[in-house]
Each structure stands twice: as structure tokens, then as C-alpha cells.
Design brief:
This protein is an alpha+beta fold. It is built from 8 helices and 17 strands. It has one domain: Clavaminate synthase-like (Double-stranded beta-helix, 4-Layer Sandwich), CATH 3.60.130. The strands form 5 sheets. It has a 7-stranded mixed beta sheet. A 3-stranded antiparallel beta sheet has the order 14-6-16. A 3-stranded antiparallel beta sheet has the order 10-7-13. The mean pLDDT is 93. The chain binds succinic acid.
């Protein structure tokens, strides 16, 4: 089976002349070659942005030169900084989050656990997210992504009709119950080393969004549904909505819609939350992992 025709991956056809792309899986993801992110040119950036919307997730290796300032500058090329619902950012860089799990830390739940799109319980969830790897375990700690545009396209026409006008209730209720598990009091929040500073009430109230969203740049439709934050459907009972959301959540993360990244230090990954889901792995106890994260503010999904 091929999801896209061979020409889909053709740099010349896609107008990628200042960058080279190497697809990671047939469903999504690509490595970008020939770019020093700290010194990216305007022509390269235009093509990198196009490659992001094309492949949903892109990554660059060997970006040793890249500083936090460089990551902030690249983030701002995509749009304003997004507000992170979970953390406050680091000293001197309020829009930069440091994701650390120390070698000695053993937790049931890590930041990014479970298939999700970033903070969909907000009215304007982040459009784009970026992770720079500083310290990586010798094995484990991979990240998975899944292509939700492909997942939408491959539904039957009948199912597309059924879900066309539905609105999904996105809420952090289930995720926060995992974060809070075993914690003595509600405002004592952390996930391993990561201190969480957040408005839990607002996150649990969440927001209603279209179950099928249209990408503001490509005009393509994607399923906007995951197994972490999709709690119900407007106008339906839980008995009615749960089986549908369970099906769509499983469908959206089918293995053949995925790509999986084995991290190396000094990689930069960028993904488009409007077209894919992602998930971190909690399988590297005994080793340290440190990432630098930034997000781009998104639009209200339509
Ligand atoms: C995230 O969900 O933003 C973090 C993913 C990861 O650490 O692999």
C-alpha cells in the first residue's frame, strides 16, 4: 500500500531547491538536510515551512550551533509565541520550556505521555511545536507522531458525513487526574523535574472544537481528536459519544499513519499540531533526557 504517489516525496516537484528532504515514513515525517538552523536564510525558511505542512513533522540533525535564542527566533518566524498551559518557562526565556527527566527519576506518567495534540483544551491551541534535544538516553525516549489528515482522508464517505458538523469537548480532566495521582494536594504539581504552574479549573472546563478541522494554510481537513483530551461530543451523552471517540482516537493513531523518531543530541524537531498527534515514551528510567521546547500560537480551529 502507498498512501501518497511517489511524486509526493519529490523535492523538485515540491519546489524544495534550497533544502533537501528525506522522508522518514511513508505516512509522514521528513529529515531536512542542508540547513544550519541558526543561520537559516529566508529562502530556506519559506521552503522549511512548506515542508512542515507537507510532511506534518520535520527534523534537522547536528544543530550543535543552535542556542535558545536561535530557537526563539525560529519560532517567531512561524508566528507569536503560544501560551503554554502547563509551565511558566525558564529564567530569562518565559516562552521556552525545559523538559527534563533525570536518571534517578521514576514516574508513572511523563510530560507528553499518551497520544495527544498540544493543549487542545484552549480556545487557541498551539499551531506548531518545536523540540530541541540536548541530552538523550542511549535507548528509549523516542517520540511518535501520527498523521491526522491521512486518518481523516481514509475514513469512509459515510463516516465523514456523520462527523462533519460535530464538536468535540477537549478537556484536561483525564490528564490532570494522572498528574495529580498520589499527590498530597492539588496545587503540588510536578511531572518528575518539571514544575507545572497551571490553571487546572480552566483546563478541565476546556473548549469545544470542530471534530474535523480545516488547515488555515493548506485548506486540508484533519481529524481533531485524540485519546488524551477528547472527552465528549456536543449534544451527545457519554454513552453515545464515547464509542465514537474511542474509534476515532484509535483510528487516528493507526500504526501505518505513524512515524517514530530515535532522537540524537542536537536535533531540532518541528511539528504541526493541526495535522498530527504525538506521544512521548516513558521507557528510559536510569538515563537522563533533556529537551528545549517552544510553541507557536494557533488560531481558533475551524
Ligand atoms: C511533548 O508532548 O511536547 C513532548 C514530547 C517528547 O518529549 O517526546
Amino acid at each position: 500500500m502507498q498512501f501518497y504517489p511517489p511524486e509526493y516525496y519529490d523535492d523538485a516537484r515540491n519546489g524544495f531547491t534550497a533544502i533537501k528532504t528525506v522522508p522518514l515514513a511513508s505516512a509522514m515525517g521528513a529529515e531536512i538536510l542542508n540547513v544550519d538552523v541558526a543561520n537559516i536564510t529566508d529562502e530556506q525558511f519559506t521552503q522549511v515551512e512548506k515542508a512542515l505542512y507537507h510532511y506534518k513533522m520535520i527534523f534537522f540533525r547536528n544543530q550543535q550551533n543552535m542556542t535558545i535564542d536561535d530557537q526563539e527566533a525560529l519560532t517567531l518566524r512561524f508566528g507569536d509565541f503560544g501560551t503554554d498551559a502547563y509551565t511558566d518557562g525558564i529564567e530569562g526565556h518565559p516562552n521556552v520550556q525545559r523538559l527534563i527527566k533525570e536518571a534517578s527519576t521514576v514516574v508513572d506518567w511523563i510530560f507528553g505521555d499518551g497520544w495527544h495534540t498540544d493543549s487542545p483544551f484552549m480556545e487557541q491551541p498551539p499551531a506548531v511545536s518545536m523540540l530541541q534535544s540536548l541530552d538523550i538516553p542511549p535507548y528509549g525516549g523516542d517520540t511518535w507522531w501520527s498523521n491526522t489528515e491521512l486518518a481523516y482522508n481514509l475514513l469512509s464517505e459515510k463516516m465523514k458525513d456523520v462527523i462533519a458538523d460535530l464538536r468535540v469537548h477537549m478537556s484536561a480532566a483525564w490528564v490532570l487526574s494522572n498528574v495529580n495521582k498520589g499527590k498530597p494536594k492539588l496545587n503540588d504539581l510536578s511531572v518528575g523535574e518539571i514544575e507545572l504552574t497551571m490553571n487546572q479549573k480552566k483546563m478541565v472546563e476546556g473548549w469545544f472544537h470542530p471534530l474535523v478541522r480545516t488547515h488555515p494554510v493548506t485548506g486540508n481537513k484533519s481529524l481533531f481528536c485524540d485519546t488524551s483530551y477528547s472527552m465528549g461530543i456536543e449534544g451527545m451523552t457519554q454513552d453515545e459519544s464515547r464509542p465514537l471517540l474511542d474509534f476515532l482516537g484509535e483510528w487516528a493513531t493507526r500504526e501505518d499513519f505513524n512515524c517514530r523518531l530515535r532522537w540524537e543530541p542536537h536535533m531540532l524537531v518541528i511539528w504541526d499540531n493541526r495535522q498530527c498527534l504525538h506521544k512521548a515514551f516513558n521507557d528510559y528510567d536510569g538515563y537522563r533526557r533533556e529537551m528545549i521546547r517552544t510553541i507557536v500560537n494557533g488560531e481558533t480551529p475551524v
